[in-house]
Write a structure and sequence with these properties.
Strand content: 25-35%
Distance between the termini: 63 Å
Oligomer: single chain
Helix content: 25-40%
Number of helices: 4
Largest sheet: 7 strands, antiparallel
Number of strands: 7
């Protein structure tokens, strides 16, 4: 049975101006398989090739990016820090607490606290970045409700029965988590000089 606090929390999301994204927009990046579960844990991971740069060079650039843009970034909260800095073996890890904003304007702000772990594994010419151990904390000074990614943004919770759309509440968390993950991963890649691949469009001429 759902607790009263959880019901109140969900009600706040239902009556707030949420889910401005219409179901007619392109949802493909948020649908089935977009949230991988590895060994029972939601885990995002991607590997980037960085030709011409050494492990040491990539390490320094990623550490600087993570410190300035995430740990001390505009949305950061007090529990942000590096948890491992091993330049010799190319391991860089950080524990992050930040505000995840759903809506932020002069007259209304809608967000939850978002916790996650970032891990970089770095080698000559490449690195991988992983986001895991994600959870969300709703806190209105009267109560706290914690929502684990594994029980909240996975396919079974955040997709509708046809799996062609997002549910109203969990789907919203899923969308903004994926967007934040993409922002972090792309920022990390850009910081070491990886440029986005250009799409080639072929037009048939009759």
């Amino acid at each position: 049975i759902m607790s009263m606090n959880r019901k109140l929390f969900l009600l706040l999301f239902l009556i707030s101006p949420l889910f401005l994204m219409g179901q007619s927009s392109d949802l493909s990046k948020y649908l089935e398989g977009a949230v991988p579960v590895v060994n029972g844990q939601v885990t995002f991971e991607k590997t980037y090739q960085v030709p011409g740069k050494s492990r040491a060079e990539i390490y320094v650039l990623l550490k600087d990016y993570t410190l300035n843009q995430i740990i001390n970034g505009p949305n950061h909260l007090e529990q942000c820090s590096f948890t491992e800095t091993d330049s010799i073996n190319g391991i860089l890890a950080a524990s992050i607490e930040e505000n995840l904003y759903f809506k932020r304007k002069a007259w209304v702000t809608h967000y939850v606290r978002f916790y996650y772990q970032l891990i970089y594994r770095i080698d000559d010419g490449n690195f991988s970045v992983q986001m895991r151990r994600m959870y969300y904390l709703y806190d209105d000074d009267k109560r706290e409700e914690e929502y684990r990614a594994e029980n909240w943004i996975v396919d079974s919770e955040a997709l509708n029965k046809k799996k062609d759309g997002l549910t109203r509440i969990s789907g919203k968390f899923r969308k903004y988590t994926i967007d934040r993950k993409d922002e972090i991963f792309k920022g990390a890649a850009k910081s070491v000089g990886v440029t986005p691949s250009k799409k080639i469009i072929i037009v048939d001429e009759e």
